[in-house]
Each structure stands twice: as C-alpha cells, then as structure tokens.
Amino acid sequence: MSGYRVVLHDAPGAREWLLAAGYDGDLRETEDAGRGEESDGAAGWITIGQSGARALEEQRLAWQPQTFKQILARALALGAATGCQAGMMRVIAEGEARLATLRTQLGIDRKAGPEHLAVCDVLLDDGREPPPWTPDLLDRAAGRPPRREIQEKAHIVRLGPDILVPGPHLYHAVLRIARELYPNRI
Questions:
Q1: 26, 58 Cβ separation under 8 angstroms
Q2: Which residues does residue 61 pair with via DSSP β-bridges, in sequence order?
Q3: How remote is the C-alpha of 92 from its chain's centroid?
Q4: pTM of the entire predicted model
Q5: Half-sphere exposure (CA, 13 Å, Cβ side) for 110?
Q6: First to last CA, the chain
Q7: Residue 186 to residue 179: CA distance in whole angstroms
Q8: Mean pLDDT per 10-residue interval, the chain, length 186 residues
C-alpha cells in the first residue's frame, strides 16, 4: 500500500486517473471546493500528504482543467505527487498510442487542414452543455466544430454525461466520436 494520503476536494476524474495508474493508498473525496478559507476559491483541488503526516506537510494541487492538454498535465502532476508517475505515464502513453493508431486508420494527418476533417457538433444525452475540452476531443477524433458564420451542416454526435468528467475514459470518448464520424474507415 502506498504511503500517501490523498483527499479529492470536488475533483471529478482525479480518482479514475489515480486508480488507472495503480494508486493503492488512502483516497478520500469531499465536495467542499470553493467553500471556506482553505479553498482560495478554487473550483477543485487535491491535497496530498504522507500517511500519518501533519497537515502542514501536505501538498495542494489545483484541479480545474479546461482543455484536454490540461487534463493530461494535471494527471501527470497528480501521478508525480502520489508516487505513481510511472503508472500515470503508462496510462497516458497507451491512450495516446490508441489515438495515433486511430489517425493512421483514418488516413488523416494531425496537421491536416480543416477541409480534411469531418464537421460535427457534440450534444449530451441529458441536454447539458458539453465541457470546455470538447473541441480538443473533436480535434483528436479528426473532427471539427461547424463554423456558424458559414452555416455548415454538421454531423451530430451524441454522448453520455461521462464526457463531463475529465478522466482517462475520455480516450474512449474520442474513439466513439471518430467511429461516428468515419464509420467506413474504422
């Protein structure tokens, strides 16, 4: 068992990243972000300390990613702070390798211009607005949002509310989006 104690303060997705990376230490969750002096108004944060250590020795990590790149950066920082950096790097490397394979299957280069990408809009099944990292997921799935000023016809991709949680399962969401956009290529 890891010698770390982790408390997630309204940090959706952080638990999933830790478990995927093999973290086996003390892990607790609260929903007290943005409340009290301790929070500094942060949307979400994580406190990490050694098991049995005093609170003064704890490390605090902000958890409020807005892009897919920020999600990955926060996951790596979380892995480094909890002693499971190698596991976190493995999870990310496996996901990125799947996305590289996806682009190869689609025959679309990462630097392909917008004219080579499928136009799509993402709608959530429960009617909520897609999270801010949605354009990044579309880009990784070789799609792009429609340009409203041109009134482009877009393929509608429906996703469940799991896309709202910035966890490692977002790699699967990218694959689902790509399968809908390019059903004859995957």
A1: no
A2: 46
A3: 10
A4: 0.85
A5: 7
A6: 41
A7: 6
A8: 84 96 93 49 79 68 94 96 96 95 86 82 88 92 82 85 93 93 88
Contacts of 155 (CB under 8 A, 6+ apart): 118, 119, 120, 121, 143, 180, 181
Helices (H), the chain: 14-20, 68-81, 85-106, 134-140, 170-181
| Residue 115 Cα to chain centre, angstroms | 27
8 Å CB contact between 170 and 130: no
Q: Is 132 within 8 Å of 67 (Cβ atoms)?
A: yes
Per-residue exposure over 106-123, b if at least 16 CB sit within 10 Å of its own CB, e if not: bebeeeeeeeebbbbbbe
Residue 41 has a pLDDT of 45
User: How many CA atoms does the CB half-sphere of 71 hold within 13 Å?
Assistant: 27
Report CA 141 to chain centroid distance, whole Å. 14
Gap between the Cα atoms of 55 and 105, Å rounded: 50
* Contacts (Cβ under 8 Å, ≥6 apart) of 51: 3, 4, 5, 25, 26
Tokens of 39: 């929070």
